[in-house]
Prior knowledge:
The chain is of the alpha+beta class. It contains 22 helices and 28 strands.
Amino acid sequence: MNRRFTCSVFGFLQKHLKRLALGLLAVLLLAAGPLIYTKIYQHWDNDAERGAIGISNGAYGETYAIPKYLEQGWSANDSLWFYNTSQGSGLMPYDLFLALRQADSNALFRSNENFDKFRYLPQKATFFNPDALPVGFTKTTYKGKDYIGYTCAACHTGQINYQQKAVRIDGGPAMADMVGFLTALQHALETAQKDEGKRKALVEDVLKLKNGYSTEAEVLEDLERWTNSVQRYNVINHSEVKYGHARLDAFGRIYNRVAQYAISADQLRNLLELTVTIRGDQTVPLLTADQVVKVMEGVGNNIVLSDEEFSTVVNRLLSKDPGYPGIGIKNFLRVKDMIFNPPDAPVSYPFLWDIPHSDYLQWNGLAANAGPGPLGRNTGEVIGVFGILDWGEIKSWWRHPFAMLANFSPSGLLSGQRNKKHVIGFDSSINLFNLQRLESRLRDLKSPEWPFCRKDGQDDYYIPDTAQQQLTPSAPGYCPGNDRRFDDEKKRRGELIYIDRCRGCHTVVDRSAWDRIVVGHMSDVERIGTDPAMAQNSVERSGKSGNFTDTYQDTDAGHVIVKEDAPVVQILTAATKGVIATPDADKWWPRRMVEWVYALVMSFADNPIKKSVRSGDYRPDTTAEPYASLRAYKGRSLNGIWATAPYLHNGSVPTLWDLLNRVRSAAFVQRRRARIRPEECRLRGGQGRALRSTEQRGNRNKGHDYFCKQKPGSEAAPAEVIGVQPAAATLERSSDCMTEAQVWDLIEYLKSL
């Protein structure tokens, strides 16, 4: 019998082999076709000006011509593709955003003037950007619907303005005010709801687009939903530490997004029961037992809450309808504080050149860069910038014998849920395929070269006039006549000082070496003395772990068991692994599998960084403190440092001169301009600036003060001495402190990196 069965099977295969082979080939072509197409498509936008436009009398009184670009290893196509490639961010529906008006005028919210106010960089329409969105804003399509979202470029593209000229810097830190932008967006959405004229205009303009909406009711329904979404995000992420321009607590906001999507219904119900308020002189429960039941009605015992379910709970808490508590915003903040943590540790946006060549990333070295590390780091970033998270329990429509295999799915295994009765699935809009390609593109990005020339025998700086759109400052003849970019003698003396005082923590790299590896030097927070907020928050913030409770997670010190109240870094790690192990949810299954496998394989094959221990002076991870090494800050390479103000990790020092000064101010000016003072590598302020107290945690500008350490028993430094670290005997001076002239020598060298 077995022989007859085997023969019949082979007979069938022999008879239909050709058809089966053709069918398999067709499936492979259909799956690989989009992959090939995307590789071709990414080269189709070659606008010579990279979409950049000039501004006349902008939001802060600036006027500048069409920005020039520095030679950084990228072509015009590379820049445009980087600006406009979706990573899966979905802030709100695309059509609503295009048609939305500003709260206090009839001008479009997306106008260049409005974006300039928040220091996003205006662009003209190009092939990749037909609606002329600013750098870093693009369309994300997910499950048949279009959304406006952020790309990496929104926070990592810089620009400096000088004498009505502008230089665009790919991979440079942005001057963006994301909080101000989202606050203004909230006000615009609220006004569209309340103002009949604006509401009517919005509906008409959206329907004219004939894209995702066909009726007024659909538009108004989404207007309400996404107004609530932006309101909720802004309330949850309110911070007493004001960021202003050029700074953001990205980690704090990522942590809060994970905290919302990880908590289970039972854990949320328990927190509502435990929340208290003050009535008279007594501390009493905020909600009655009946109110908790009413608020959680219909949510059941879900192991994870969808965005709609969480929104429903919030709306019910605030509702004054019969049976609901109507707690008001003050008491809602008490509930918020039970679930979330204040994002009160802003940092300056890091630069992106040398990112793929670095061993560890993030200001405290949290992200290892080996293997799939970049994919995990970028996935966490998209979670923070409005990736649409359709996380939910994996359910089968019938309990077949293999239903338990959900526990052994890649996402179940990698996220630690192998032994859980119920398993979270990690469907989302996060585009792993694009994330891997974006990271790969960064490998060719080089640090920017100092673009200013100095007139012979004078201190006047200028950017040379040229018809070329791309500037190559190191090219022969870049500065006309006898003008030069640097004072060579000062630069030579500055290099000796750098070798003596800086190189131990800040390695010097060859910006053009394709095989370069940038080793970050970690310095313990207590030793470096800079503001501890970011490093402390990264390991001390906790949240409810939901279905990750009692799962095993890896650390450098060994496995840890996740508790119900767990460090958010553990929850984020588990969730990120789950997302990485999940193919894109809204693509045809052969395509999603091909792109998913491509992203995972290339994360290893295209990544030269191997696993290594952190370098530096820090507390090692132990079984008692598995995250001790993260209470440190990374000394990064300083090539291109002139283009990365403000300085220190939290952006509390505006210039290199201030960084090297012996005494720092009790407040720093929050810059809204990107005008530069070349002699100090200084971003200039003026109109529309804000003062931030440096006594506030998160804003402290102390530390990194190896400036003028006196040896025991030595005499005090003279008044004119400013200085950095104690010098070695080889430095040509007798004092342990630097003079003002030596500070300028060091700055001259730093500009040349």
